[in-house]
Write a structure and sequence with these properties.
Blueprint lengths: L2 H28 L5 E9 L4 H8 L7 H15 L6 E5 L17 H18 L8 E9 L11 E2 L5 E7 L5 H15 L31 E2 L5 E2 L5 E2 L7 E2 L2 H6 L3
Parallel strand pairs: 1-2, 1-3, 3-5, 6-9
Antiparallel strand pairs: 4-5, 7-8
Bound molecules: zinc ion (ZN).
């Protein structure tokens, strides 16, 4: 056997192993039989001292409402509570995760990005301790008022995601909405808003029984509360969000 054949065989072998592990992990996590483990890795998005200060003041408790939200929402669908959701604030990572390539999205660019994110996760988090753990890289920015952050992205059923968040105390509740949204992507949920950022009816609407407009809550994967067909507002926090029927089905509730 030539060296080249050996190398290709080795690459194929690694690919099979990686896909196998990912598939197994996602099956185990998505059957909701054991407590779900989520590790939040903060990253300084603009390298400023203010963001460093904000990150070092973060506490595990800042994220606990995500676990409470999942517990109360899952009960509505499953009739009983799930094993606890453990959200752990992990160590700060000094390198930025790969950003999604600019320009038109193709399957090729998506695959390339997902491989580079997997590689980033492999290089910056402990391998054995991360098995079956959902890893979220939360990139904090000082941000400018009115200027939206880069779009957060999670790997569909890949248990890894990148969240862009504001390094501001008054933004903590909304950051938890974005983190939960990405967490649900990592568990297999799809977006429920259209190209104009408007929630899609019916799956992106929290209340499908009453009048369609205005809504008072946001479906977590729609990300916004539909006020009129053209206007939607961002929820203040998870207390204004629900998990809709389609998302519940996608994450296996
Ligand atoms: Zn999304």
């Amino acid at each position: 056997m030539s060296f080249r054949t050996l190398r290709i065989l080795f690459l194929l072998f690694s690919l099979v192993i990686i896909s196998g592990i990912t598939y197994w992990e996602s099956m185990v996590v998505r059957n909701w039989h054991r407590p779900m483990e989520v590790a939040i890795y903060p990253v300084n998005g603009d390298g400023s001292g203010e963001v460093d200060k904000y990150i070092s003041a973060l506490k595990q408790d800042d994220f606990s409402e995500i676990g409470l939200f999942i517990a109360s929402q899952s009960e509505r669908y499953r009739g009983k509570s799930l094993p606890a959701v453990n959200i752990r604030l992990a160590e700060t990572i000094r390198t930025l995760p790969p950003s999604f390539p600019e320009g038109p999205r193709s399957t090729f660019s998506a695959v390339k990005w997902s491989l580079s994110l997997r590689r980033f996760a492999f290089e910056h988090t402990p391998f054995w301790r991360s098995l079956g753990v959902i890893r979220l890289f939360v990139v904090y920015h000082l941000g400018e008022d009115g200027v939206p952050l880069q779009h957060s992205l999670g790997l569909h059923k890949g248990l890894v995601g990148v969240v862009h968040a504001f390094a501001l105390d008054r933004q903590k509740a909304q950051n938890n909405v974005v983190i939960t949204h990405e967490l649900f992507h990592a568990l297999g949920a799809s977006d429920k808003y259209d190209t104009a950022n408007q929630p899609i009816y019916p799956e992106g609407f929290a209340d499908r029984e009453g009048p369609r407009y205005p809504q008072h809550m946001a479906e977590i994967m729609a990300g916004r509360i539909a006020i009129t067909p053209e206007v939607a507002r961002i929820p203040a926090g998870l207390e204004e969000c629900v998990v809709g029927y389609k998302t519940a089905w996608e994450i296996n509730w």
